[in-house]
Amino acid sequence: MKKEMTKGLFVALAMGLGTPTFAQNLFEGCPSGEILGRFVEFGKTGKMPPDLGRWLSTPDAQYIEPWSPFDNVDYVGICWVSSWLVHTDEGSVLIDTLYGPFSSTLLDNIAKTGTDLADIKYVLMTHGHFDHVAGAAALKALLPNATFVMTQEGWDEAVESSKASQAGPRAWDMIEPEMVVADGDTVTLGNNTFTVVETPGHTWGTASFVYDVMDAGDTYRAITIGGLGLNAIEGPPQVEAFIESLDRVRALTEAEGIGIDVHLTTHGFSNNLDEDRQAIAARAEGETNVMVDPDGLISQIEFLRAGAVERLAIEEGKQTKDEN
After folding, report:
1. Nearest to residue 232, comparing CAs of 222, 223, 242, 224?
2. For 132, which of 50, 96, 186, 273 could close a Cys bridge (C-beta 3.0–4.6 Å)?
3. Measured between alpha carbons, how far is 79 from 150 in angstroms, rounded to an integer?
């Protein structure tokens, strides 16, 4: 199934969010297209619409009941940002930690899956932006057997971002670095192996993770791509790195015999995650899982790459103007 996408994918996903003063029911449910449309508005103006900012920070409005896209995977995130719980025969792996007002939501969601916090053995973090790692400090004391994992640059970015936040109204703390991984490293737990693919561009420390998901006796290769947008761009090299990362993910997806079949995204509105949830809930016996969609991932990569090429020309123009 080809995913519908817009240039809203390129908005800054690491903005500071205001603290809500009331529940903000901006959308009915978690409609990907409508949410993308509001991010397009934000991307054009560079100013966070107040109602969108409130919605992003309101737990009631963001709540998604935990659900299982695959036999060994639970979605435990919220509407706008993901957290995935991958189960093995020797424990579970959590991918990304949410943040701030959603730490308790994440813990409640994990509990609803029937997972004991002591059974979580690794927390894989995609990059150092607050929406993906700011929950680590709250989780650290509650996951007695978990090792927190990120690239060195990812750890550095998270620590730096946390320190910078201390001077503002939405300060957050980051744990001390634990396990450091690099491109090609693997984290194995029981019957699953998580391979690190460094994909710089969204940030310099961004990583993606490739692992197995199971569905009705079949095994598929899945990827969680660490960063799908360009923001806080330092110049042409960062955009070039983003393009190279997209090309690499495409090559992995198309690799004969070991290609990637499934994209478990870090931001659900980027590829119709909630609509897929509904389709899976209504799935007939024997029907293919709608999230087994390598063609949809290729289409998403193509769209992202086209936008990045356009952005590279803009950044190169800025650089030339500065040099002159």
Report:
1. 242
2. 96
3. 24
3-state secondary structure of 17: coil
Q: Rounded to the nearest 5 degrees, what angle is found at the Cα of 42, between the Cα atoms of 172 and 155?
A: 30
CB atoms within 10 A of CB 218: 13
Pair type for strands 147-151 and 179-181: parallel
| CATH label of the domain that carries residue 175 | 3.60.15.10
Please give the pLDDT value at position 17.
39
Q: Residue 151: exposed, middle, or buried by beta-carbon count in 10 A (0-12, 13-18, 19+)?
A: buried
Helix, strand, coil percentages (3-state) for the chain, rounded to 5, are 40, 20, 40
Question: For 6-21, how does the pLDDT look when each residue is reduced to its tens digit (9 = 90+)?
Answer: 333 333 333 333 333 3
Tell me 223's DSSP state. E
pTM of model > 0.85: yes
pLDDT tens for 172-184 read 999 999 999 999 9
Q: Is residue 59 part of a domain?
A: no
What whole-number distance in Å separates Cα of residue 15 and Cα of residue 11? 9
Spans of the chain below 50 pLDDT: 1-23
Chain mean pLDDT for the chain? 90
Q: What are phi and psi of 293, to 5 degrees?
A: -150, 65
> Does some domain include residue 281?
yes
pLDDT in tens, 299-312: 999 999 998 999 89
Tell which residue, 28, 68, 26, has the closest CA to residue 50.
26
Number of domains in the chain: 1
The beta-strand segments (E) located in 50-185 are 67-70, 73-75, 84-88, 91-95, 120-124, 147-151, 179-181
List the domain range (segments joined by +) for residue 256: 7-52+65-323
Q: What pairs with residue 11 in β-bridges?
A: none
Is the CB of residue 226 less than 8 Å from the CB of residue 202?
yes
Strands of 32-131, DSSP E: 67-70, 73-75, 84-88, 91-95, 120-124
